[in-house]
Amino acid sequence: MSSLEIGFIGFGVFIALSLLRVPIAYAMTIVGLGGMLLIYPVEAAFKFIPTGVFSYTSSFTLSALPLFLLMGSLAIYADLGKDSYEAAKAWFGRIPGGLGVATVYASAIFGAVSGSSLSAVAVFSKIAVPEMIRAKYSKQLATGVVAAAGCLDALIPPSILLVFYGILTETSIGQLLIAGIVPGLIYATVMALSITIYCRMRPGAFNEPLDFDTSWKAKFQTLRSLWAAMFLFIAVIGSIYLGWATPDEAAAVGVAGTVVVLALRGKLTYESVRDATIDSAKVSAMIFLLLGSGFIFATFLSSSGVITAITKWVTGMGLSFWTIMSAIILLYLFLGCFLDAISMMVLTIPILSPIMVDLDQSLVWFGVIVVMMMTIGAITPPLGLNCFVMKGALGDTVELKDIFMGSLPFVGLMLLTVIVLVAFPDLTLWLPELMRSMR
After folding, report:
1. pTM for this prediction
2. Which of 370, 419, 378 has the alpha carbon at shortest distance from 179?
């Protein structure tokens, strides 16, 4: 049996294990290790795999992942989500659908200090959803806005998914983080406009409360409460953009800066630091487990020739660029129903990134497209992690089906944004290229 045949059989076994609900990290390890033992001598395989996994997961660049996670966890205890919501409410509260629009832009601001959509959803489920429901928003609209707006945190830097993608593809993490800014702002604007248009067309769908101040004095007063978020964003992203720090160094600056903010606000306690550290450590452990298992599986696919064969097959079919991108979008829509974002990346990026390189496409641009598709999976049933996190935060006040139904209209908006970014790649690449030209 040839190595290529072993590779395709192993890929089939992996799919079967996944359908049997075997955790994806274990499935990749079992198939990858078994396949390597069939391709190479036993001694060579057992020598290469442990050293390869250790070398891959101990890279200093990977330190950005747990540091950004810790920064986001600490930001929750600093009440930065509440500050961003109060400021956005003062600025956008009076327009039709103002509370929904405020939630969108508050999530965008919070995304500048937290790279996890799940964290944003957990925060704004408790802050924004009850207030929108009191304002006579339907439960579907209120929960759908928060679930979809949380996806902004996966795009606006510091984004954990963009960092993870950069590690998998060996692409500049700094350029990836900067590349997420404009697409994130575009998506936020599309969401905000859509909410306003919907509420203007259906004025009876909501009843904005009048118990908060939206005067110009209040607007500028609330901006002062955003100093912490702006300070952290400038310290982290500004240092990367100007070339003063690498992403891992900037992540360390972000953690230190968040600790300073906690101290200045009198919230720096042993309990807050302990809980934030434990939360980020748990997620980091999961990510590193997937990284190690993904390395084994990707090495097996590469050694067997599967990746090369698929790349040649796809590019040799003579398909147009739009046909290939449409197939990739449909693939991620399907996978997003069953897998989380990290698992999807580990599974697909080793196969898809060589195809993009062969098509002479920017991996920075493709990374943003991939992350956008990952965020759609976060709000689509039956997995939809954002929706489950919201259900856990709100308890019995809302039904899970209402959260999913409220999120579905935003799937169309996100797909529209993806199509725009595919059609006009310069929207994504403008800032990274400007950053590169300044150095």
Report:
1. 0.86
2. 370
